[in-house]
């Protein structure tokens, strides 16, 4: 089983629940995906970092940093940045992919920053999120990153619920490509196929 398949199985096992749920968008759903249970799991976090770093190397090799809106993106960012450091250790000369986190609002004290961690004007960055529904959280991050003078070259989402988020996010990112690792249908199918669900 490769890293991507292992990650899908963990999300299906740990993060997917069937039932009656109200989403942050206010919409009703018969399933809920809480990716934080997977991305904060020791093995789930490791796999998240490896899979997303592979996607970044494949699609956005010029990226200097990866970041997203706190808190869903926090473990995704940290694990992806760490994966880049492990890769660079085995492939000397590979540039590191640093991380940054975007607050929902600028901090009300100290330097008043909205972006914590990596921040460099003109830097090419990838914005990440764990679950995308309408794209609101990702768009908040994109807007803050652009306001800080960084260049969003791509967006990665761990699970796309395919409820309009892609179009909204690509519009906010001025056409930067949006790539989802999995769709909610992928996760649902993997969940249903679990031995305990049969």
Tell me what the structure shows.
The two termini are 21 Å apart. The mean pLDDT is 93. By secondary structure, the protein is an alpha/beta fold. Helix content is 41%, strand content 26%. 42% of the residues are buried. A six-stranded mixed beta sheet has the order 5-4-3-6-7-8, sandwiched between helices. Strand 6 (124-132), helix 5 and strand 7 form a beta-alpha-beta unit. It has helices at residues 3-15, 36-39, 42-59, 74-90, 136-147, 165-172, 184-192, and strands at residues 16-22, 28-33, 65-69, 98-102, 115-117, 124-132, 151-160, 178-183. It is globular. The protein contains seven helices and eight strands.
Quick overview:
By secondary structure, this protein is of the alpha/beta class. It is built from 7 helices and 8 strands. The radius of gyration is 16 Å and the shape is globular.
Mean pLDDT: 93
Shape: globular
Number of helices: 7
Radius of gyration: 16 Å
Structural class: alpha/beta
Any low-confidence stretches, pLDDT <50, length ≥5? none
Helix content: 40-55%
- Strands, count: 8
In spatial order, strands of the major sheet run: 5-4-3-6-7-8
Distance between the termini: 21 Å
Assembly type? single chain
Proportion of strand residues: 25-35%
Write the SSE topology.
Layout: H1 3-15, E1 16-22, E2 28-33, H2 36-39, H3 42-59, E3 65-69, H4 74-90, E4 98-102, E5 115-117, E6 124-132, H5 136-147, E7 151-160, H6 165-172, E8 178-183, H7 184-192
Parallel strand pairs: 3-4, 3-6, 6-7, 7-8
Antiparallel strand pairs: 1-2, 4-5
Helix pairs in contact: 1-3, 1-7, 3-4, 5-6
């Amino acid at each position: 089983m490769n890293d991507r398949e292992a990650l899908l199985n963990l999300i299906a096992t740990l993060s997917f629940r069937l039932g009656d749920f109200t989403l942050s968008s206010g919409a009703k759903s018969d399933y809920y995906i809480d990716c934080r249970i997977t991305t904060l799991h020791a093995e789930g976090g490791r796999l998240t970092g490896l899979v997303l770093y592979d996607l970044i190397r494949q699609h956005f090799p010029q990226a200097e940093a990866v970041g997203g809106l706190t808190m869903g993106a926090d473990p995704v960012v940290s694990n992806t940045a760490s994966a880049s450091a492990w890769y660079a250790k085995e492939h000397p000369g590979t540039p590191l992919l640093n991380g940054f986190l975007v607050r929902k609002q600028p901090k009300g004290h100290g330097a008043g920053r909205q972006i914590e961690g990596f921040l460099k004007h003109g830097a090419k960055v990838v914005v990440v999120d764990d679950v995308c529904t309408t794209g609101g959280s990702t768009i908040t991050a994109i807007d803050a990153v652009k306001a800080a003078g960084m260049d969003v070259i791509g967006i990665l989402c761990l699970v796309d619920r395919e409820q309009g988020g892609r179009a909204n996010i690509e519009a906010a990112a001025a056409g930067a490509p949006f790539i989802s690792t999995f769709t909610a249908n992928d996760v649902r199918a993997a969940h249903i196929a679990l031995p305990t669900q049969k």
